[in-house]
Amino acid sequence: MTGRTSFAYAAIALCIVLSGCNKNDTKPPQEGAAGIRAALFAGNYGDAAALARKQAAATPRDPAVQYELARAEALSGNRGKALDALENAMKSGLGDAAHALDDRAFDTIRDDPRFTALANRASPASGAGGSDAALAAGSGANHVEIREGANGTHIQAGDVKLDTNF
Description:
The chain has helices at residues 3-21, 32-41, 45-58, 63-75, 79-91, 97-100, 113-122; strands spanning 133-137, 144-149, 152-157, 160-164.
């Protein structure tokens, strides 16, 4: 082998080795509600909200995406946007909305009259033709709520929650 050939082979080998160094081993972000949940779980609320807004614009009638957008906005401190997204999720057919509203992500907006109205819509009193009964009083740390339904009783006093199914 001549010096020139050895140099050429060495240069090719070096290029191959260096091309492997630029690989990005991070996984691409997940899409849809799963990607938003992953960002929320990681505590990246701003990233989750941005991803959720993008997904919500692409699929405005997807209740799961709207719900995750509401959670991300609430955890990011965007009260109005969280309530808007939560209302859109319910209008789009969010399943078991009464249970979904119990998510701790909504603790910062639970005392808002709009949230109370959404909760009442999700779990109507038995006198209004629904099968559930609800009683709520106070707001924030003084919020007390009792809801009875086919799946048991939900009792909440401040941040203490008890769900029964006897």
